[in-house]
Amino acid sequence: MKISKMFENKKAVWSFEIFPPKQTADLGGVQKTISELADLSPDYISVTCSAGGSGNSRTCEIATMVKAFGIEPLAHVTCINSSASQVSDTLGELSRADIENILALRGDRIPGAKESDDFAHASDLAAFIRARGSFDLGGACYPECHPEAASPEQDIENLKRKIDAGVTHLNSQLFFDNEEYFRFLERLRGAGVNVPVQAGIMPLVKKNHVDRIISLSGAKIPSKISRMIARFYDDPDSLMAAGIAYATDQITDLLSAGVDGVHLYVMNNSYVARTVTNNVSSILASINRQC
Ligand code: FAD
């Protein structure tokens, strides 16, 4: 099913993001994770890909696995290091696997890697895909502004180009401060962007996530999270419990505010996905009964 249709049918779409294992790794582990995630009946599961393009075929393989478990997959496709013919090959592979949904991304710059002569922005990729098939297209958005954008307003102008090129719904970068997200939505709607937007939430549950996510995402860290990290950084059980509690509280507030949906960055951890999903399942069920 096309994800844009899900937004028409549901008040709040609920989904997970997973990443493929390394090219040489065995797929048994990720298959088990997908099976456990499928038991939670998300609306869809997205599968990331590496910007270098080396992970793209694994993305299709994992997305096919998601489909085999009866869950709709969303395959990420990046373009910053790809030629038009490489992207065409990826689209052919996804099409043969009956994958209907693509998240069209530029991808992060890899220092030293040759950048594409064919695609500069995700909007170029979206237009390219739209001209070649009937894929449903999502795109990325940044509540706290993309780091390369000149200003939040300019970032939204650029986002509009992506939508004009055929993107019909957006998945947000992770954030920890809901007020930032609400202000972003206000700017977005004020600029006339009315497509559904799913809030990206990552439960901070492990020491290595804390280190990586805080340095890479650029997300503002509220003092509640700083206190949690300071207190539980070397106490894995408490960090797991506190991270899940924070994410649950954040999602409850987002659902109370009537967001279009939540996309949970689960880092291939089905325990985290299950616990957070169970914590908010009765709210989600009640919201979606009102359709
Ligand atoms: P774009 O939409 O092209 O935007 C990038 C920058 O260019 C922004 O500053 C924007 O304002 C500006 N811009 C856009 N269009 C124009 C224009 N026409 N003229 C001038 N400036 C413009 N990375 C991966 O490598 N693999 C993944 O699987 C992956 N999944 C992601 C999923 C989500 C939900 C998110 C939020 C990000 C993901 N990323 C992934 C990271 C993403 O690729 C990077 O954040 C990247 O830097 C930007 O990608 P984009 O698609 O948002 O690019």
Report on the structure:
- The protein is α/β, with parallel strands linked by helices and 291 residues long.
- The protein has a single domain, classed as Alpha-Beta Barrel (TIM Barrel).
- It has eleven helices and eight strands.
- The protein has helices at residues 3-9, 28-38, 56-68, 84-96, 122-130, 152-164, 178-190, 207-217, 223-232, 236-256, 270-289; strands at 13-18, 44-47, 72-78, 101-105, 136-141, 169-174, 197-201, 261-265.
- An eight-stranded parallel β-barrel has the order 1-2-3-4-5-6-7-8, surrounded by six helices.
- Strand 5 (136-141), helix 6 (152-164) and strand 6 form a beta-alpha-beta unit.
- Helix 9 (223-232) runs antiparallel to helix 10.
- The radius of gyration is 18 Å and the shape is globular.
- It starts with a helix and ends with a helix.
- The mean pLDDT is 95.
- The structure holds flavin-adenine dinucleotide.
- Residues 48-51, 76, 78, 105-108, 121-123, 140, 146, 148-149, 155, 158, 161-162, 171, 173, 200 line the site of flavin-adenine dinucleotide (FAD).
- Residues 48-51, 76, 78, 105-108, 121-123, 140, 146, 148-149, 155, 158, 161-162, 171, 173, 200 line the site of flavin-adenine dinucleotide.
Q: Could you list the spans in which at least 5 consecutive residues all have pLDDT below 50?
A: none
- Output the number of helix runs: 11
Termini separation comes to 18 Å
Q: State which percent range the strand residues make up.
A: 15-25%
Largest sheet: 8 strands, parallel, barrel
CATH class category name = Alpha Beta
Strand order, largest beta sheet:
1-2-3-4-5-6-7-8
Mean pLDDT across every amino acid position: 95
| CATH-level-2 architecture | Alpha-Beta Barrel
Taken in chain order, the helices and strands follow as: HEHEHEHEHEHEHEHHHEH
Radius of gyration: 18 Å
Which distinct ligands sit in these coordinates?
A: flavin-adenine dinucleotide
- Count of DSSP strands: 8
CATH topology: TIM Barrel
Domain module count: 1
**Share of helix among residues?**
40-55%
